[in-house]
Write a structure and sequence with these properties.
It is a single chain. The chain is mostly helical. The chain has a single domain, classed as Cytochrome Bc1 Complex, Chain D, domain 2 (Orthogonal Bundle). Helix content is 59%, strand content 0%. It has five helices and no strands. The protein is globular, with a radius of gyration of 19 Å.
Length: 102
Amino acid sequence: MRVAAAVVVSVLVVLVQAAASWQTAPPGDMGRGREVFAANCAMCHGTDAAGMAGMHPSLRGAVQRLTLEGMEVAIRNGRATQPPMPAWEGRLSDRQIEDLEP
């Protein structure tokens, strides 16, 4: 019984430490994110991220609509919209994608 309790406590300690590190993970670099956006996204979504009516959606409020995870999936895999959004996986590094996320 003591061994099982010790294992449970050990697992809980590891989980708490992991959760703490996830919460304190450094966010993307906004300055670099602006550069990545300007070089890769602004042509369609506009320099102010307002989009182009009837063509490319506004990215303002995208986090609230899609969540951070949803945004990352869209960036990595593209979207089958008209016109389609290309997949950026393999074109942008993981770090560049993290920098794009607010």
